[in-house]
From TrEMBL:
GO terms for molecular function: ATP binding; hydrolase activity; RNA binding; RNA helicase activity. It catalyses: ATP + H2O = ADP + phosphate + H(+). It is an enzyme of class 3 (hydrolase). This is RNA helicase. Belongs to the DExH box helicase family. Keywords: ATP-binding, Helicase, Hydrolase, Membrane, Nucleotide-binding, RNA-binding, Transmembrane, Transmembrane helix. Coiled coil: none annotated. Its EC number is 3.6.4.13. Residues 57-224 form the Helicase ATP-binding domain. Residues 311-485 form the Helicase C-terminal domain.
Length: 764
């Protein structure tokens, strides 16, 4: 269409004029200066020519791919997509290009798109936009889109060929997230059929060769970065050099002679000697093990948790009082640790003085306004201390960091293929991560890195972290492969960079629903038993996230708000259903926000649940199990809802034994288990039901169950699988006779084999 061509040409020229106007404006020139100071600028021409050269000749996939590596902060994420956009606009084809840059985390997609818009003198949503799940800022003229990898995958569901996309840039590939690995397989297949598509892979550290060879020998461009030297202290050095001076007591005296201080000093002194003791013990054990056994054992026996936060506190105190000005970046394992340490530091006699110290948390779930504070420079004389998760390792660059304190661990989901339990345990980082963390200290001047673990422990670290594909449940991945119609799962995954073990694949259950199989089963039961709507709420709630907010400082209030919804039902799932239904009513009456505020609910999450319910419903209707006229006839029948929840969650079941003042819970595989206090059953001292079914368990020292619903014997017998064979049932004697009638009725309907559980109920 000539009209369209003409329109696009005019649009492109418009974009070029606008870009040139900005680049010659005062503010534009100033930002231009900053951008030119970044190391990536020196490689700009090489990068652009490598990216565009791929256009000619497509003999192998490698011709369409460029791998770029460079130190964090050198300007990969904010600059390279921008170079491509600018050069397309300069060439007068701005309106024709369509660049997609993926980020592993929503927070970086949002932050980076905002930054690039600023550098281009535009509002977000003009030529640059972002899209993450359930949120986005994208306009008709958006030509560069930052999105999460998940968003691009979902787009591939409906648009296998990525029609119209000219460039795909996959960022942070060194992290080896599952979504990224999955995307690689799809893109590797897609490239030969899609000559217009160029692929750019960006990575922080130097395992670029792996990706290059996977994509048929793609060229690698390395951006040389300059970092100042960083001096490394291992734990033994920290103790040696700072030794009993970890907390500089002599300086404490400068701050006041009053009694208060003297008392504090004594407390500190006592605490310090305890720390020294624990550290020495652990060191001895660790180095002993190193010589006597395999190095892996020294990792196992060296347990920094036994030192707690006090060591970190002391090191921070030492830096604050003995070292030149400069921000401190502390790497912690997770959000809860960060909050707890922050609380502890706020009462510290030296660090607690708010006029001298600026304490800032930094983790994935914080708001973007909170995030911006991290980039600000503090006033002169104020020490900025950022408490961060491993997010600050590569995706966020804080320019004024001079000191890094590294606890050596990170929380990652790992997956045990044998007993199907995702663990959220802090585990040791890799050597690559440790180097990356250390590098954060040398961006503006020579820095120092305090590693709170001994050298022998470091030596036993793996070189690189295990890819997520190899350590997480594959169910949702398998479902995606199936819905993309890529054929055999093991075939498909065998084409991955590194493939998971066959054992992980063997136990797969699949369905057309984009949810975990057990939740898909729950939905189908909900439809069959005509209580679909509340079950849709439960499943959507489990797939999005918990809408009940548990603010750290108002936990008790929040927990009691939640328990009101349970009204002695002993069910988190029913509490969710009630909270959701209450919110829907409140929305109709225009007081949805007050309702959420009062009840510690996240309106955003509830909205997400609502929209997911609609999606699930339409998918279910496609499968033909939903009868619109009757599917909600029993929506208020709690017994039925409970039973359907059980059908879905089985074999996630534990037995309940009420003791005098507490409840003891057991599962077959784990023995004793505990409930999170945020569960409505978590604080109960008596649960008048023999069983709890649960969705999820997490191993953190002990095994914890998340949301649970109490059920009766007969529900378990009828809706749980493996009726007579369940050793769990034998372990707790059920009066089978009392259920005999029920059982024989069921036996009329099913043969024993089918009792195994799945889909044996007919429409009648
Ligand atoms: P890389 O992706 O190579 O790690 P980035 O492109 O994210 O690097 O960042 C390059 C530089 O841009 C950083 O060193 C920092 O100085 C600056 N920068 C990035 N994001 C922001 C921001 N939101 N605000 C201010 N400066 C930023
Ligand atoms: Mg980056």
């Amino acid at each position: 269409s000539a009209v369209m061509d003409k329109f696009l040409r005019r649009k492109s020229l418009q974009m070029r004029d606008q870009q040139q106007a900005w680049q010659s404006s005062l503010q534009g020139r100033r930002l231009q200066e900053f951008r030119k100071s970044l190391p990536s600028y020196n490689e700009k021409d090489i990068i652009l020519s490598a990216v565009s050269q791929n256009q000619v000749g497509h003999e192998t996939a490698g011709d369409d791919v460029v791998v770029i590596s460079g130190e964090t902060g050198c300007g990969k994420t904010t600059q390279i997509p921008q170079y491509i956009l600018e050069s397309e606009i300069d060439a007068g084809c701005g309106a024709l290009c369509n660049i997609v840059c993926t980020q592993p985390r929503r927070i970086s997609a949002m932050a980076v798109s905002e930054r690039v818009s600023v550098e281009r003198g535009e509002n977000l949503g003009e030529s640059v936009g972002y899209k993450v799940r359930l949120e986005g800022e994208k306009g008709r003229n958006t030509r560069l889109l930052f999105c999460t990898t998940g968003i691009l995958l979902r787009r591939l569901l409906v648009d296998r060929n990525l029609k119209g996309v000219t460039h795909v840039i996959v960022d942070e590939i060194h992290e080896r997230g599952m979504n990224e690995d999955f995307l690689f397989i799809v893109l590797n297949d897609l490239l030969p059929h899609q000559p217009e598509l160029r692929l750019v892979l960006m990575s922080a550290t130097l395992n670029a060769e792996l990706f290059s060879s996977y994509f048929g020998g793609a060229p690698i461009i390395h951006i040389p970065g300059f970092t100042y030297p960083v001096c490394t202290h291992f734990l033994e050095d920290i103790l040696d050099t700072t030794g009993y001076r970890l907390t500089p007591y002599n300086q404490l005296d400068d701050y006041g002679q009053d009694k208060m201080w003297k008392m504090q000093k004594q407390v500190l002194r006592k605490r310090k000697s305890q720390i020294a003791f624990v550290v020495e013990d652990a060191l001895e054990a660790a180095s002993f093990k190193e010589y006597s056994q395999q190095t892996q054992d020294s990792l196992a026996c060296w347990n920094p948790d036994s030192i707690g936060f006090n060591l970190i506190e002391n090191v921070l105190c030492y830096i604050c009082n003995n070292k030149k000005p400069g921000a401190i970046l502390v790497f912690m394992t997770g959000w809860d640790d960060i909050n707890a340490l922050k609380d502890q530091l706020q009462t510290h006699p030296l660090l607690g003085d708010p006029s001298r110290v600026l304490l800032l948390p930094c983790h994935g779930s914080m708001a973007s306004s909170e995030q911006r504070l991290i980039f600000n420079k503090p006033e002169v004389g104020v020490r900025k201390i950022v408490l961060a998760t491993n997010m600050a390792e590569t995706s966020i660059t804080i320019d004024d960091v001079v000191y890094v304190v590294d606890c050596g661990k990170a929380k990652e989901t790992s997956y045990d293929a044998l007993n199907n339990t995702p663990c959220l345990l802090p585990s040791w980082i890799s050597k690559a991560s440790a180097t990356q963390r250390r590098g954060r200290a040398g961006r503006v001047q020579p820095g120092e890195c305090f590693r709170l673990y001994p050298k022998c422990v470091y030596d036993a670290f793996a070189d690189y972290q295990l890819p997520e594909l190899l350590r997480t449940p594959l169910q949702s991945l398998c479902l995606q492969i199936k819905s993309l119609k890529f054929g055999s799962i093991s075939d498909f995954l065998s084409r991955a960079l590194q493939s998971p073990e066959p054992l992980s694949l063997a136990g797969r259950h699949l369905s057309v629903l984009p949810v975990e199989p057990k939740l898909g089963k729950m939905l189908i039961y909900g439809a069959i038993f005509n209580c679909l709507d509340p079950i849709l709420t439960v499943v959507a709630g489990l797939s999005v996230r918990d809408p009940f907010l548990m603010p750290y400082d108002k936990k008790d209030l929040a927990e009691s708000a939640k328990s009101q919804f349970a009204a002695k039902d002993y069910s988190d799932h029913l509490a969710l259903v009630r909270a959701f239904e209450g919110w829907k009513e409140a929305e109709l009456e225009q007081y949805g926000y007050e309702y959420c505020w009062k009840n510690f609910l996240s309106a955003q999450t509830l909205k997400a649940i609502d929209s997911l319910k609609t999606q699930y419903l339409s998918l279910l209707e496609d499968t033909g199990v939903v009868d619109r006229a009757t599917c909600n006839a029993w929506r208020h029948n709690e017994y039925l809802i409970r039973a359907v929840i059980c059908a879905g969650l089985y074999p996630g079941v534990c037995s309940v034994l009420n003791k005098e003042k507490s409840v003891s819970l057991k599962t077959m595989e784990d023995g004793n288990v505990l409930l999170y206090s945020s569960s409505v059953n978590g604080r109960e001292t008596n649960i008048p039901y023999p069983w709890l079914v649960f969705n999820d368990k997490v191993k953190v020292n002990s095994v914890f169950l998340r949301d649970s619903t109490a059920i009766s014997d007969s529900v378990l017998l009828l809706f749980g699988g493996e009726l007579s064979r369940g050793p769990l049932l034998n372990s707790k004697r059920i009066d089978i006779k009392a259920h005999q009638e029920l059982l024989s009725a069921v036996q009329l309907l099913v043969t024993e084999d089918q009792c195994d559980g799945r889909f044996f109920f007919g429409r009648t």
